[in-house]
Automatic annotation (TrEMBL):
Keywords: Isomerase
Location of the NAD-dependent epimerase/dehydratase domain: 7-156
GO MF, one annotated term: UDP-glucose 4-epimerase activity
Pfam families in UniProt: Epimerase
Keyword Repeat attached: no
Protein name listed in UniProt: UDP-glucose 4-epimerase
UniProt keyword annotation of Isomerase present: yes
Highest rank taxon of the organism: Bacteria
Protein backbone atom coordinates (compact mmCIF):
# COMPACT_ATOMS: atom_id res chain seq x y z
CA UNK A 1 0.00 0.00 0.00
CA UNK A 2 1.28 3.45 -0.93
CA UNK A 3 1.76 5.61 2.18
CA UNK A 4 -0.36 8.77 2.34
CA UNK A 5 1.10 12.03 1.15
CA UNK A 6 2.49 14.34 3.80
CA UNK A 7 0.62 17.64 3.64
CA UNK A 8 1.56 20.79 5.53
CA UNK A 9 -1.41 23.04 6.28
CA UNK A 10 -0.68 26.61 7.33
CA UNK A 11 -3.32 28.71 9.05
CA UNK A 12 -4.67 25.45 10.41
CA UNK A 13 -6.85 27.12 13.05
CA UNK A 14 -8.53 29.44 10.56
CA UNK A 15 -11.97 29.34 8.97
CA UNK A 16 -11.00 27.90 5.57
CA UNK A 17 -8.73 25.29 7.18
CA UNK A 18 -11.59 24.31 9.47
CA UNK A 19 -13.71 23.47 6.43
CA UNK A 20 -10.90 21.51 4.79
CA UNK A 21 -9.63 19.54 7.79
CA UNK A 22 -12.30 16.79 7.86
CA UNK A 23 -11.32 15.72 4.34
CA UNK A 24 -7.59 16.27 4.75
CA UNK A 25 -7.41 14.30 8.01
CA UNK A 26 -8.98 11.30 6.26
CA UNK A 27 -6.58 11.35 3.32
CA UNK A 28 -3.17 12.59 4.43
CA UNK A 29 -0.41 12.58 6.98
CA UNK A 30 -0.86 16.16 8.19
CA UNK A 31 1.41 18.75 9.69
CA UNK A 32 -0.72 21.58 11.05
CA UNK A 33 0.72 24.97 11.96
CA UNK A 34 -0.68 28.31 13.03
CA UNK A 35 0.13 31.14 15.42
CA UNK A 36 -2.62 29.84 17.72
CA UNK A 37 -4.15 26.43 18.35
CA UNK A 38 -7.77 27.49 18.84
CA UNK A 39 -10.39 28.36 16.23
CA UNK A 40 -12.63 31.43 16.09
CA UNK A 41 -14.97 29.90 18.65
CA UNK A 42 -12.08 29.30 21.04
CA UNK A 43 -12.15 25.54 20.52
CA UNK A 44 -8.88 23.60 20.47
CA UNK A 45 -7.84 22.38 17.03
CA UNK A 46 -6.30 18.95 17.44
CA UNK A 47 -2.72 18.55 16.26
CA UNK A 48 -1.84 22.21 15.65
CA UNK A 49 1.76 23.22 16.32
CA UNK A 50 2.32 26.85 17.25
CA UNK A 51 4.56 28.13 14.48
CA UNK A 52 4.89 31.59 12.94
CA UNK A 53 5.74 31.19 9.26
CA UNK A 54 6.43 34.89 8.86
CA UNK A 55 8.88 35.16 11.76
CA UNK A 56 10.45 31.70 11.87
CA UNK A 57 14.16 31.28 11.20
CA UNK A 58 14.76 29.95 7.67
CA UNK A 59 16.30 26.77 9.10
CA UNK A 60 13.18 26.09 11.17
CA UNK A 61 10.96 26.69 8.15
CA UNK A 62 13.09 24.38 6.02
CA UNK A 63 12.87 21.67 8.69
CA UNK A 64 9.09 22.06 8.81
CA UNK A 65 8.90 21.45 5.05
CA UNK A 66 11.27 18.47 5.02
CA UNK A 67 9.55 15.39 3.57
CA UNK A 68 6.38 17.32 2.70
CA UNK A 69 4.67 16.49 -0.60
CA UNK A 70 2.22 19.41 -0.71
CA UNK A 71 1.75 22.63 1.22
CA UNK A 72 -1.79 23.97 1.52
CA UNK A 73 -1.20 27.60 2.39
CA UNK A 74 -4.19 29.06 4.22
CA UNK A 75 -2.20 31.22 6.62
CA UNK A 76 -3.19 34.85 6.93
CA UNK A 77 -1.79 37.65 9.05
CA UNK A 78 -4.28 40.11 10.48
CA UNK A 79 -3.50 42.82 12.99
CA UNK A 80 -7.07 43.93 13.53
CA UNK A 81 -6.48 47.11 11.55
CA UNK A 82 -7.78 48.03 8.11
CA UNK A 83 -6.37 45.89 5.33
CA UNK A 84 -3.91 48.47 4.03
CA UNK A 85 -0.70 48.10 2.07
CA UNK A 86 1.52 47.52 5.12
CA UNK A 87 -0.61 44.77 6.65
CA UNK A 88 -1.13 43.01 3.33
CA UNK A 89 2.56 43.26 2.49
CA UNK A 90 3.14 40.96 5.48
CA UNK A 91 0.93 38.35 3.83
CA UNK A 92 2.83 38.65 0.55
CA UNK A 93 6.09 38.22 2.45
CA UNK A 94 4.74 35.14 4.25
CA UNK A 95 3.61 33.55 1.00
CA UNK A 96 6.99 34.19 -0.61
CA UNK A 97 8.62 32.45 2.36
CA UNK A 98 6.36 29.45 1.75
CA UNK A 99 7.33 29.27 -1.93
CA UNK A 100 10.99 29.66 -1.13
CA UNK A 101 11.01 27.06 1.68
CA UNK A 102 9.05 24.65 -0.52
CA UNK A 103 11.58 25.02 -3.33
CA UNK A 104 14.52 24.54 -0.98
CA UNK A 105 12.99 21.46 0.67
CA UNK A 106 11.92 19.83 -2.60
CA UNK A 107 8.19 20.09 -1.93
CA UNK A 108 6.25 19.02 -5.02
CA UNK A 109 3.32 21.46 -4.91
CA UNK A 110 1.86 24.47 -3.12
CA UNK A 111 -1.91 25.02 -3.13
CA UNK A 112 -2.85 28.52 -1.96
CA UNK A 113 -6.20 29.56 -0.53
CA UNK A 114 -6.74 32.73 -2.54
CA UNK A 115 -9.90 34.75 -3.17
CA UNK A 116 -12.06 36.27 -5.87
CA UNK A 117 -10.89 39.61 -4.45
CA UNK A 118 -8.03 39.32 -6.93
CA UNK A 119 -10.55 40.25 -9.61
CA UNK A 120 -13.32 41.86 -7.58
CA UNK A 121 -13.46 45.05 -9.64
CA UNK A 122 -15.23 43.04 -12.35
CA UNK A 123 -18.30 42.92 -10.10
CA UNK A 124 -18.92 46.58 -10.96
CA UNK A 125 -19.68 45.93 -14.65
CA UNK A 126 -21.44 42.72 -13.56
CA UNK A 127 -23.87 44.71 -11.42
CA UNK A 128 -24.32 47.12 -14.34
CA UNK A 129 -25.28 44.26 -16.67
CA UNK A 130 -22.25 44.89 -18.89
CA UNK A 131 -20.60 41.46 -18.39
CA UNK A 132 -22.00 38.12 -17.29
CA UNK A 133 -18.84 36.04 -16.87
CA UNK A 134 -15.30 36.35 -15.56
CA UNK A 135 -12.56 33.77 -16.01
CA UNK A 136 -9.02 33.33 -14.74
CA UNK A 137 -7.78 34.47 -18.15
CA UNK A 138 -9.17 37.96 -17.57
CA UNK A 139 -6.58 40.44 -16.34
CA UNK A 140 -6.66 40.54 -12.51
CA UNK A 141 -8.37 43.69 -11.27
CA UNK A 142 -8.39 43.99 -7.47
CA UNK A 143 -10.19 46.91 -5.86
CA UNK A 144 -8.52 46.69 -2.43
CA UNK A 145 -5.11 46.04 -0.94
CA UNK A 146 -6.46 42.66 0.22
CA UNK A 147 -7.16 41.72 -3.39
CA UNK A 148 -3.86 43.19 -4.55
CA UNK A 149 -2.01 40.90 -2.13
CA UNK A 150 -3.74 37.86 -3.64
CA UNK A 151 -2.67 38.98 -7.12
CA UNK A 152 0.87 39.24 -5.75
CA UNK A 153 0.56 35.64 -4.44
CA UNK A 154 -0.32 34.59 -7.98
CA UNK A 155 2.47 36.41 -9.81
CA UNK A 156 5.03 35.20 -7.26
CA UNK A 157 3.64 31.69 -7.66
CA UNK A 158 4.12 31.82 -11.40
CA UNK A 159 7.70 33.02 -10.92
CA UNK A 160 8.47 29.96 -8.79
CA UNK A 161 6.63 27.67 -11.22
CA UNK A 162 8.08 28.83 -14.53
CA UNK A 163 11.62 27.58 -13.91
CA UNK A 164 13.51 30.86 -14.15
CA UNK A 165 14.72 30.42 -10.56
CA UNK A 166 16.36 27.13 -11.45
CA UNK A 167 13.57 24.70 -10.61
CA UNK A 168 9.82 24.39 -11.09
CA UNK A 169 7.56 24.43 -8.04
CA UNK A 170 4.02 23.33 -8.89
CA UNK A 171 1.58 26.05 -7.79
CA UNK A 172 -2.22 26.26 -7.65
CA UNK A 173 -4.20 29.32 -6.59
CA UNK A 174 -7.83 28.80 -5.59
CA UNK A 175 -9.87 32.00 -5.74
CA UNK A 176 -12.57 31.11 -3.23
CA UNK A 177 -15.72 33.22 -3.59
CA UNK A 178 -18.44 32.62 -0.94
CA UNK A 179 -17.48 29.68 1.34
CA UNK A 180 -20.40 30.10 3.75
CA UNK A 181 -24.03 29.24 4.17
CA UNK A 182 -26.05 32.16 2.83
CA UNK A 183 -28.71 33.79 5.00
CA UNK A 184 -31.06 36.19 3.25
CA UNK A 185 -31.53 38.04 6.55
CA UNK A 186 -28.00 39.37 6.13
CA UNK A 187 -29.15 41.16 2.97
CA UNK A 188 -32.37 42.62 4.34
CA UNK A 189 -31.27 46.22 3.80
CA UNK A 190 -29.10 45.65 0.75
CA UNK A 191 -29.83 45.53 -3.00
CA UNK A 192 -31.09 42.22 -4.36
CA UNK A 193 -28.09 41.96 -6.70
CA UNK A 194 -25.74 41.75 -3.71
CA UNK A 195 -27.64 38.72 -2.46
CA UNK A 196 -27.68 37.10 -5.89
CA UNK A 197 -23.95 37.72 -6.17
CA UNK A 198 -23.36 35.49 -3.14
CA UNK A 199 -25.78 32.91 -4.54
CA UNK A 200 -23.69 32.83 -7.73
CA UNK A 201 -20.44 32.61 -5.73
CA UNK A 202 -21.52 30.01 -3.18
CA UNK A 203 -19.29 27.00 -2.57
CA UNK A 204 -20.37 24.25 -0.21
CA UNK A 205 -17.99 22.68 2.25
CA UNK A 206 -17.92 19.36 0.43
CA UNK A 207 -17.24 21.05 -2.92
CA UNK A 208 -14.48 23.13 -1.36
CA UNK A 209 -12.93 19.96 0.06
CA UNK A 210 -13.19 18.19 -3.29
CA UNK A 211 -11.52 21.06 -5.12
CA UNK A 212 -8.58 21.23 -2.72
CA UNK A 213 -8.09 17.46 -2.66
CA UNK A 214 -8.11 17.29 -6.45
CA UNK A 215 -5.61 20.15 -6.58
CA UNK A 216 -3.36 18.07 -4.33
CA UNK A 217 -3.89 14.77 -6.14
CA UNK A 218 -3.97 15.62 -9.86
CA UNK A 219 -0.67 14.50 -11.34
CA UNK A 220 -0.34 16.98 -14.20
CA UNK A 221 -1.34 20.61 -13.68
CA UNK A 222 0.76 22.12 -16.47
CA UNK A 223 -0.77 24.95 -18.47
CA UNK A 224 -0.71 25.06 -22.28
CA UNK A 225 2.87 26.36 -22.17
CA UNK A 226 4.06 23.51 -19.95
CA UNK A 227 4.24 25.59 -16.75
CA UNK A 228 2.88 23.79 -13.65
CA UNK A 229 0.73 26.72 -12.58
CA UNK A 230 -3.05 27.10 -12.36
CA UNK A 231 -5.63 29.51 -11.00
CA UNK A 232 -9.14 28.19 -10.28
CA UNK A 233 -12.26 29.88 -9.01
CA UNK A 234 -13.85 28.16 -6.04
CA UNK A 235 -17.61 27.98 -6.55
CA UNK A 236 -20.14 25.16 -6.56
CA UNK A 237 -22.16 23.91 -9.54
CA UNK A 238 -24.49 26.90 -9.31
CA UNK A 239 -27.18 27.59 -11.92
CA UNK A 240 -26.46 31.30 -11.54
CA UNK A 241 -22.87 31.72 -12.67
CA UNK A 242 -20.39 34.55 -12.93
CA UNK A 243 -17.03 32.99 -11.99
CA UNK A 244 -15.96 30.41 -14.56
CA UNK A 245 -14.84 26.98 -13.33
CA UNK A 246 -14.33 25.55 -16.81
CA UNK A 247 -10.56 25.19 -16.38
CA UNK A 248 -10.95 23.51 -12.96
CA UNK A 249 -13.25 20.94 -14.56
CA UNK A 250 -10.76 20.33 -17.37
CA UNK A 251 -7.46 20.34 -15.47
CA UNK A 252 -8.25 18.66 -12.14
CA UNK A 253 -11.66 17.09 -12.96
CA UNK A 254 -13.48 19.27 -10.44
CA UNK A 255 -17.06 17.98 -10.33
CA UNK A 256 -19.00 20.10 -7.82
CA UNK A 257 -22.21 18.50 -6.64
CA UNK A 258 -24.07 21.35 -4.95
CA UNK A 259 -26.15 24.08 -6.58
CA UNK A 260 -27.09 27.16 -4.58
CA UNK A 261 -30.20 27.60 -6.75
CA UNK A 262 -31.48 24.29 -5.39
CA UNK A 263 -30.14 24.53 -1.86
CA UNK A 264 -31.53 28.01 -1.23
CA UNK A 265 -34.55 27.79 -3.57
CA UNK A 266 -37.21 28.96 -1.13
CA UNK A 267 -34.99 31.73 0.16
CA UNK A 268 -34.15 32.92 -3.36
CA UNK A 269 -37.81 32.95 -4.40
CA UNK A 270 -38.71 35.10 -1.39
CA UNK A 271 -35.86 37.50 -2.08
CA UNK A 272 -36.75 37.84 -5.78
CA UNK A 273 -40.40 38.51 -4.90
CA UNK A 274 -39.22 41.23 -2.55
CA UNK A 275 -37.15 42.72 -5.37
Amino acid sequence: MTPPRTVLLTGASGRIAGQLLPALRDAYDLRLVDVKDTDRAGEQVTGVEIFDVLEAHPDSLAALCEGVDTIVHAGYVTDGAARGYASERSNVDMTQRIYDAATTAGVRRVVCASTNQASKWYEQPYYQGRIDRVSVDDYPRPDSFYGWAKVAYESLGFLYACGSLGTQLEVVQIRIVAPREIDSADFRDRPLQHYLRDIAGYISERDLQQLFVKCIETADIRDRFGVPFQIFYGVSNNARTFWSITNAREVVDYQPVDDSEVKFAEQIAAMVRRG
